[in-house]
Sequence to fold (304 residues):
Amino acid sequence: MIVISAHSGAVPRIALAFRLALATVGVLAVGAATGGCSSAPAAGKSDVAVVAAFYPLQFVAERVGGDRVTVTNLAKPGAEPHDLELQPRQLASLVDADLVVHLGGFQPAVDEAIEAEAKKKALDAATVQPLVDNDPHVWLDPIRLAAIGDRVAERLGAVDEKNADAYRDRAAALRADLTALDTEFSNGLKTCARHDIVTSHAAFGYLAARYGLTQVPISGLSPDAEPTPQRVAQVAALARSRNVTTIFFETLVSPKVAETIAREVGAKTAVLDPLEGLTEAGSDYFSVMRANLAALTTALGCSS
Fold:
C-alpha cells in the first residue's frame, strides 16, 4: 500500500495511540477470521495499495498508478485537510502501505504517524523541489505537480518493478496534460488590466509566481488563522489603491472576512479554490484549476 500525506512532527504524542489502534484493528481482524468471514485479499492480488493524505496527492497517484493501484484518501471530501485527525483504521493502513507519499508540514497528525511507523516507506513530495517560504501548496503550480508525478512513478516502479515502464509512461502522460494546462494559464493571464489577487489566505504563492501575479493574502499560510484588524485595514487600503475588483475566498473556509473587505472597497467576491479537497461531485484537479483560471481572467480584466 502507498500512503500520500503532507507534514512531519513529534512522534511521542501519537506513538502510543498508534499502537493501541493497531492492536484494536488486529483484534477485530482475528474475530472476523474466526467467525468465518475473512477480509484478506484474494490470493494473487497484484494491486499496489495507495493511501493519499489529501486530494492533489490522490489525483497524482491515481493518474500515475492507473489500474495497478488502489488509492484511499485519508481526508474526507469537502473537509479541511490541515487539521486531519486519523482514526484507528486509517492509522493501521499506514502499516500495510508499500509507499508513503507525503508533503511535509501540511498535516501534522499524518506526519507523526508516518514518522512513527512508516518512515522507510515515505516519499515527501515537499523534497521533490525546494519549497518557497515554507509554503506547501505546490500543487497549484502544474509544472511542480508534474515533477511530483515523475517521482511517484519512480517509487511505484521500485515497489512494482515489472510495471515500472507503465508507471513512467503514465507520469509522462500526466506531465503532458499538466503542461497543456500551464499553457492555458500562461495564455489566459498574459494580457490583464490588473495583476493583484486578494485571497483569504496565502495559498496561491506558487500560482502567482508562475503566472506573473501578485498575491495579497488576508491571512497567512494557515486558513484557520484570524487576520488582525490592522492586516484587514492594510489589505482594504491596498485593494482600493490598486482598483481591485474582486476579493477571493475559498470553498472550505468562512468567507466573512473577504466579504467585509469587499463591502468596504466596493468589490465583489468570488471563489478561488486552493484544491486542498474537492467539494463538488464529478470535479477533478483539471476542472477546478480551469474554474480558477476563469475566475482570475474575469477578476483581472484579462483579454485573450
